[in-house]
Amino acid sequence: MIRARGLRKVFGHRVRALDGLDLNVPSGAIYGFIGQNGAGKTTTIRTFATLLTPDAGEAFVADLDVIHKPGEVRHLVGYMPDFFGVYDDLKVDEYLDFYALLHGMRGRRIASLRDDLLELVDLTTKRNDYVEALSRGMQQRLCLARALIHDPQVLLLDEPASGLDPIARVEMRGLLRELGRIGKTILISSHILSELTDLCTHVGIVANGKMLREGPLADVLWALERPGFFVRVLADPERAAEVLETMPGAGAVEIDPDGSTVRFRSWRGVSQHLRPTGRPHKPTGRPRRPTGRPGRPTLRQLRQTR
Ligand SMILES: Nc1ncnc2c1ncn2[C@@H]1O[C@H](COP(=O)(O)OP(=O)(O)OP(=O)(O)O)[C@@H](O)[C@H]1O
Ligand SMILES: [Mg+2]
Question: What pTM was estimated for this model as a whole?
C-alpha cells in the first residue's frame, strides 16, 4: 500500500536525510517506523504526504506515484505532522469544519462528520473551546481527527504520542488500534520500538536515512533480540556464510563488504557453531523460531547488537 525504493534527499550540500531508503507497508498494516533523532522519519513521511520532493528514488501510495500524482495521493492520505500549528481564535468545531471545507465537503455532511470525529477522539465536550486552549494531548487528538476528515485509506502519523502523558499514550494507542481494525493502513513514527510492539503488525527500523530492517513485527523482534556475532575469516567468506546459514538457531548471516568478516545472529555462542577443524557439522534442519511472546528490544539494544 505504501512503498518506496531508493529514496534520496539531501538538504543543503551535506545533510543526507534519506540515503537510498526502501520501505514497504502492506495494505491494512499498522507499521511502526522507528528511528533516532535525525534518522529520516519525518523526511520520509513528508515525502509520502506529498509535501517534499525527493532528489531520487520512487514512492507510491496504493500504486499512485507520489511525485507525479500528488493531487490524487492527497485524497488517499491523512497526515498528522510532528508539530502542528494552531490558528488563533478558532474553536474546535470551526477548526474541523475549516478542514472539511478544504477537502471539498459541503452542507450537512460536514456537521455529521465533525460530530462523529469529535466523538471518536473524545472531544465532544470541547467543541466550543478555542483550539489553543486545549491541552497538548487534546490538540494531538484533534490533529488526528483532522487527518481523518476525508476518510483516507492511509494514515501517516509523525510521532502522534510525543508529549503525551502515559495515560494519554495508552488512549492514543487504543484509538489507533480501532482505526487499524476498520482497515486503515497506518504508518506511525516513534523513537522507541517498545512503545509500539503491542500495536504494530509491521516494523521498519531506520538509521542515517536507510532502512536497517523491516518486516512483520515478530520477524524483526526475533532478528533484533538474538545476540550478534562476527567471525573473521582468512579466506572464502561465502563458504563461511553458507556454513553458518545451516546452523540451527543462527540467521541473518551477512558478509562485510571487504570480505574479511561474516556476521550472524544466534541464540547460541559462537563456540557451539564453529569447530576447530573449520568443517561444518551436518545441518539439522532449518533454523527454528522461538515460541512464546517476543520481548521488546530498545534502540539501545539494537545498537549494541549491530
Ligand atoms: N528542512 C530541512 N533543512 C535542512 N535539514 C533538514 C531539514 N529537514 C530535515 N533535515 C535534516 O535531515 C535529517 C533527517 O531529519 P528528519 O527530520 O527526517 O529526522 P527524524 O527521524 O524525523 O528525527 P526526529 O526523531 O528528531 O523527528 C536531519 O539531519 C535533519 O537535520
Ligand atoms: Mg521527525
Answer: 0.76
